[in-house]
Amino acid sequence: MSPYFVAAEDLSMFGRDPWWLVAVKAVFCFAFLMVTVLFSIVWERKVVAWMQLRIGPNRHGPWGMLQSLADGIKLMLKEDLIVKRADKVVYVLAPIVAAIPAFMAIAVIPFGPAGNEISIFGQRTTMQLTDLPIAMLYILAVASVGIYGIVLAGWSSGSTYPLLGGLRSCAQMISYEIAMGAAFASVFLYSGSMSTSAIVEAQQDRWYVILLPVSFVIYIVTMVGETNRAPFDMPESEGDLVGGFNTEYSSIKFAMFMLAEYVNMVTVSAVSVTLFLGGWRAPWPISTFWEGANHGWWPMLWFVVKVQLLLFFFIWLRGTLPRVRYDQLMKLGWKVLIPVSVVWLMLVATVRTLRNENYDFADIALYVGGGVLALLLLSFVADFFRERGRPAPEAPAQAAGFDPMAGGFPVPPLPGQELPPVPRRPSRRDRELIVSGGSDTHSDGTLDGKEASDG
Q: What residue spans carry the Pro residues bias annotation (predicted)?
């Protein structure tokens, strides 16, 4: 057997906990997400205020740390309205459908090593709720279900702008989830498993952010698009959609959409830490001189610190980059991320195949580099002959006349058409000069009649 072949994962330590311990760990996962969300909201407002030279929240609690809790209580106490034209059943269920899948993905995220069991009320258990041989497919499936809540919210509101926001969100999810899946597949090829605990164990020597940097960058971009965060927050663009899919929502239902967005931020950050940043493992300088850094409760600290750094990245993007146009969003997803992710996946698969065949690194670099150079040469030759076979451009034809009011209502010009020149309206100064002159003062018949009657 090849030394680079990864053996099947051992998941025998999962599924042995008593029911009460499973309930305790599930409550901990829920509490971890809720506390992280409350902290992230305040942290986002503080960081963006610092970037914009403002103070930020400073009233509720020390340094304003209880501001998000006060906002949640305020939203729950607001009047809960239901739009008259809404489909009431779907309208009420949509926030629930959006929020529940956001909490479910954390169930397979490891907070610590599977072999290092901790004691909870005298019971030895792992620092992970559960694990599956196809845990990453479970995360993808749960994330795909959550989008239904946004789509159904836009459709059930019975209004135009929420419907457009829901459709935008659906198109955005489809566009960016393909590239995300290709980035995941590169990790599967290197780790030989879809289990989250096995993927973290496979990063003992080097994190996958070093071995698979292109996959990491692709996933970082796609996770921002999947969570509808700036600069990809097109489904809730207030400039052209009023408020997007949640325009017609208020009170606790509106709060659940906001909760789902921030929980999804925490979830995708935890997935990124698990796949590319070593999971619960201590950073390189600490793990070299401290043997106990990855034992006990310390792995949870490293995991939380990495998640918070990625949440800061979300906040940094929102305070730095402007919102992109929708055509730019689609172009980035379909014409950049998907082709790059597919080509990179093929490259990773080639390298893994050669490694499993016991080829040396120099031979692999030679074969891969030769293949890349051959593709570039073929592309250059194809472009050269395409340019030679293309006919010379003809002189541009005279732009056809265009009447913007031909159909009875204004229509913008098509490419190659020009609007007729607009007659210049005399300025105020010109009108004053005409009135004060002598030649045009009798042009107004009303004035002449008035003067004649006065005379």
A: 410-424
Q: Which residue has the tokens 């694990």?
A: 131
Phi, psi of 256 (to 5 degrees): -70, -35
CA dihedral 348, 340, 227, 138 (to 10 degrees): -30
- Give the whole-angstrom CA distance, residue 28 versus residue 18: 16
Among residues 201, 61, 360, the alpha carbon closest in space to that of 368 is found at 360
Question: Residue 149: what residue type?
Answer: G
- One-letter amino acid for residue 443 of the chain: S
CA distance 355 to 377: 26
Q: What share of the chain is helix, strand, coil (3-state, %, to 5)?
A: 65, 0, 35
| CA 430 – CA 453 distance, rounded (Å) | 29
DSSP code of 308?
H
Helix (H, G, I), strand (E, B) or coil at 11: coil
CA-nearest of 234, 193, 225, 433 to 327 is 234
100 vs 381: CA distance, rounded Å: 53
Whether the ω angle into residue 420 lies within 30 degrees of 0, i.e. cis, is: no
129 vs 351: CA distance, rounded Å:
34
The one-digit pLDDT tens for each residue of the chain (455 residues) are 334 444 456 777 787 888 999 999 999 999 999 999 999 999 999 999 999 899 989 888 888 888 888 998 998 898 888 888 888 899 999 999 999 998 999 999 999 887 777 878 888 888 899 899 999 999 999 988 888 888 899 899 888 888 888 888 888 888 898 999 999 999 999 898 999 999 999 998 889 999 999 999 999 999 998 888 888 888 777 767 777 888 889 899 999 998 999 999 999 999 999 999 999 999 888 877 887 788 888 899 999 999 999 999 999 999 898 888 888 889 999 999 999 999 999 889 888 888 888 887 777 777 778 887 887 788 778 877 777 777 766 655 555 566 777 767 677 777 777 777 777 766 666 666 555 555 544 444 444 444 444 44
Task: Say how far apart CA 249 and CA 242 lie, in whole Å.
Answer: 12
Q: Are 36 and 307 in contact (CB under 8 A)?
A: yes
